[in-house]
Design brief:
123 residues; alpha/beta; 5-stranded mixed beta sheet; 5 strands; 33% helix
């Protein structure tokens, strides 16, 4: 059985951003799959890496560590790393660890992307 099957990761790429939409549970069993996707998301032409946690039901300390590593890698590469607010359990984990003060956390991906990136000319 695939231990990461309780985490679904949808990756949406555009010209200047990558949005990873997570659903299910992010824990010690599923974190390696997310690590791999995040590593690929921090590409040379990407200005924004956005992790959407709205459909995430659970995240443990391993998931939090994954977010911290990705945030550090994005900063090192000169990318903006943004988290879309998750449910109460996920938000509480960020609050308890004070990482909510380090991360940029928004209510929706549209809250961070400049208007020209949301609606490119000619679309």
């Amino acid at each position: 059985m695939d231990n990461s099957s309780h985490l679904q990761i949808e990756v949406n790429r555009s010209a200047h951003s990558t949005v990873l939409v997570l659903a299910g549970e992010l824990d010690i069993a599923s974190a390696p799959a997310l690590d791999e996707q995040l590593e690929q998301a921090i590409g040379p032409d990407v200005a924004f890496v956005i992790v959407d946690l709205r459909a995430l039901q659970f995240m443990d300390s391993t998931g939090l560590a994954t977010m911290i590593r990705a945030w550090q890698a994005a900063r090192k590469a000169g990318r903006r790393f943004v988290i879309v607010r998750g449910g109460p359990q996920v938000d509480r984990l960020f609050e308890l660890t004070s990482t909510d003060e380090q991360f940029v956390i928004v209510d929706a991906p549209e809250d961070v992307l400049p208007v020209e990136l949301q609606h490119p000319a000619g679309s």
